[in-house]
Design brief:
It holds the Pfam family PMSR. This protein is an alpha+beta fold and 164 residues long. Helix content is 24%, strand content 24%.
């Protein structure tokens, strides 16, 4: 029996990321929240420096951190600084919050693959940030696009072909 693992990613508005990641094979649970900022107990109205992020609980017997990164780099634009779609500001930055040296190395390797793929005109600007406390967002943000199927999202699968 497997022990579940967690991954922490930010790539723009957390609603769209959650909506796409929740359907991935091996993903057991998702929570939206805030990470990498300046204050404790951040809220949607006050989260200076925090990225809108996603905590992904996954079964490593069914998917890997590398496969999650691969999907991450195909479902958002990792080449725009502090922006996804119409959303602008550091809250919407592309970031990987690595928990150990192995995750950091996998993230660096994936960024090199993405940059070398020629799929994007510009280079990846995704930041690699050491894991910090993940603060769960308010309940009305959890599963937002399931509750509001016509809600805003700028996330979609941009490339079918894997970087792996």
């Amino acid at each position: 029996m497997s022990t579940y693992k967690k991954a922490y990613l930010a790539g723009g508005c957390f609603w769209g990321m959650e909506d796409l990641f929740r359907t991935r094979p091996g993903v057991v649970d998702t929570e939206v929240g805030y990470q990498g900022g300046e204050n404790t107990n951040p809220t949607y109205k006050y989260h200076p420096g925090h990225a809108e992020g996603l905590e992904i609980t996954y079964n490593p017997d069914e998917t890997s951190f590398e496969e999650l990164l691969d999907y991450f780099f195909r479902m958002h634009n990792p080449t725009t600084v502090d922006q996804q779609g119409n959303d602008r500001g550091s809250s919407y930055r592309s970031a990987i919050f690595y928990q150990n040296a192995e995750e950091k190395q996998m993230a660096e390797d994936m960024i090199n693959r993405v940059n070398g793929s020629g799929k994007w005109e510009d280079k990846v600007v995704t930041t690699l940030e050491p894991w910090s406390t993940f603060w769960k967002a308010e309940e009305y943000h959890q599963d937002y696009l399931e509750k509001n199927p016509n809600g805003y999202t700028c996330h979609f699968l941009r490339f079918e072909e894997s970087y792996i």
